Amino acid sequence: MKKILVIVTNVSKYPNDEKPTGLWLGEAVHFAHEIEKAGYAIDYASPKGGYTPIDPNSLAKDFMSPIDWQYYTNQAFMDLLGNTLPVSALNPKDYAAIYYAGGHGVVWDFPDNTALAQVALDIYNHGGVVSSVCHGAAGLLNIKNQDGSYLIAGKKVTGFSNSEEKALQLDKLVPYLTEDVLVARGAKYEKAADWAPFALSDQRIVTGQNPASSAPVAKQVLELI
């Protein structure tokens, strides 16, 4: 059985502000919980490999469900996040799907990593699923087909919305708005109400709007593989 590849960030701080960031823990946890229940193994990787910082805001009491606590207090799981695989160590043929977890850090280290984009394209071209949640959609922005067209062009996708970014008052701190660039790449962007769970599947590309959408993304990925 092929494994599932989860991609997380290496960015721990906003480059332009004294503000911490990193992986939004729940976006890895709730996806992993569904995938592992279905019997699949997961590899965790990041652009540089090694440690992925956890966004401290994602550890706030209001966001920590029993599932979050189950994983956060699991030493083996946290060790995996502390020692992620580098992109250079990945063999796309090992994976049935790739999933880009979010957190604001990814808007800096996901889009321009050409090796990571190639891994995703190879998984897709071998019949696999490419998926993301929230800001993780940044990983989809520059995946190009061999003819130079964008993989997401013409496909229904979602990701963190402009209205959600503005509600957090972070729209001026990020270098781009995820929704805007998805649209600019030719994707058919859709969204639900702010913070509501929402996931879309179109031609083996599965995307979720916000942190609440991680489990719905996992369920749609499982249906496809």
UniProtKB/TrEMBL annotation:
Q: Which PANTHER family match?
A: GLUTATHIONE-INDEPENDENT GLYOXALASE HSP31-RELATED, PROTEIN/NUCLEIC ACID DEGLYCASE DJ-1-RELATED
Q: Which InterPro entries match?
A: Class_I_gatase-like (IPR029062), DJ-1/PfpI (IPR002818), Prot/Nucl_acid_deglycase (IPR050325)
Family in the record = Belongs to the peptidase C56 family. HSP31-like subfamily.
- This chain's source organism reads Helicobacter gastrofelis
List the Gene3D superfamilies.
3.40.50.880
Arranged from A to Z, the UniProt key words for this protein are: Lyase, Stress response
- Please indicate if the UniProt record lists Lyase as a keyword: yes
Q: Which Pfam families does this UniProt record tie to the protein? A: DJ-1_PfpI
Domain DJ-1/PfpI: residue ranges: 27-223
SUPFAM superfamilies the record matches:
Class I glutamine amidotransferase-like
Which named protein is this? Thiazole biosynthesis protein ThiJ
The keyword Lyase belongs to this UniProt entry's keyword annotation? yes
* Classification of source organism: Bacteria, Pseudomonadati, Campylobacterota, Epsilonproteobacteria, Campylobacterales
